[in-house]
Amino acid sequence: MKHTNYTLQQLVTYFLKLGTWGFGGPVALVGYMNRDLVENKKWLSEDEYKEGLALAQLAPGPLAAQLGIYIGFVHYGLLGATLVGLAFVLPSFIMVVLLGMAYKVYSGLPLMQAIFYGVGAAVIGIIALSAYKLTIKSISKLEIGALKTHWLLWLFYVIGIIVTVITQREEVLLFILAGIIYMLVKAPPQWIKKPKVLPSLLIIGLGFWEYNQTTLINIALFFTKAGAFVFGSGLAIVPFLHAGVVTQFGWLTEHQFIDAVAVAMVTPGPVVITVGFIGYLVAGFPGACVAALATFLPCYIFTVAFAPSFKKIAKNQSIKAFVTGITAAVIGALVGSVVVIGMRSITDIFTAAIAITAALVLIYTKKITEPYIILIAAILGILVKTIF
């Protein structure tokens, strides 16, 4: 290993603190890492950080967690990646399990219902704004020239919206097909031009301890798929989760799902840790552990597998095109999911006002972040239910 000016213990401690106090979602967490580890502590070079960020954006899974795993890998290999990943995820996992325990006990009380009446509406506004930002960032700006240049990506995006709204579920095969088509159009790989041995995608099966509820197996399989096929922001996993836990399996009601997303907003660390909350509601503590492990393990495997040779991989135009095509369809599915969830959650003028206000506050102010908005929405929910 190359010489470092920090110990593995210092790095793990840093990520333990970031996982405990790091509010603001994936973009904010990635910014904290750059500020602290590159600019202030100078533990990483700018190039090392950029390589990690590029890998995190290209590979599936939660962005901030992947970058943390990569940073752990840079100077301390597999052990560093493992310990950093655990330190980053563990604090927020413990928090969502505790919140899950409280939710199971108190969710039927009028006060808790009033709180999540307001919180659920605010979450719709937050997710809608996030979907808009992801659209502009990952596909193109809403300008005539950009729309003409990226018309194929916009087509995948619109198809993703339509399929999600009509079927109320997300089709992984649609995402993969979009990636393949865009790759073939923009950057066909050499093995197509000169056929050799076709590369294969290895789907790694996960083994868990024996448990007498088949639900745990379904949780493991479903959340592994979610972790392996979701690219980009932590909120991009929302349509996958909604399709599975609400529509396909019926593990949670619509309102419980919105509450689960809200829990992710008010806790620090990666937004995707809401899977722990969902797992707890479905199958207690074992469900929380299996859901979290199944979601984060694919991104861990992808990161440590590709990190050693990433400089070459990052330059591969075919891989970039494949991921770009998938991302367009996935973001379209996220927008479709917002439409589906919004139609069920925005039930009156008060919830509509809270949702719109939450989005506008995030657009026009930088000081008021998601946790504060959720807190204010909870208070408004109590006031509305008390008065009306």
Keywords:
17 helices, 388 residues, 77% helix, mainly alpha, globular
Roughly how much helix do the residues carry, as a percent range? over 70%
Low-confidence stretches: 195-212
Number of helices: 17
Strand content: under 5%
Instruction: Output the structural class.
Output: mainly alpha
Helix-strand sequence: HHHHHHHHHHHHHHHHH
| Biggest sheet details | none
Shape: globular
What is the gyration radius calculated from CA atoms? 21 Å
Query: First CA to last CA: what distance?
Result: 65 Å
Average of the residue pLDDT scores: 81
Strand elements, count:
0
Description:
This protein has a domain at 112-297 and 307-387. The chain has helices spanning 8-21, 25-40, 46-58, 63-106, 110-138, 144-149, 151-167, 172-186, 190-193, 214-229, 238-248, 254-266, 274-306, 310-314, 317-345, 349-364, 370-387. Helices cover 77% and strands 0% of the residues. 48% of the residues are buried. It starts with 7 loop residues before the first helix and ends with a helix. With 388 residues, it is an all-alpha fold. The longest helix is centred in the N-terminal third of the chain and has 44 residues, at 63-106.
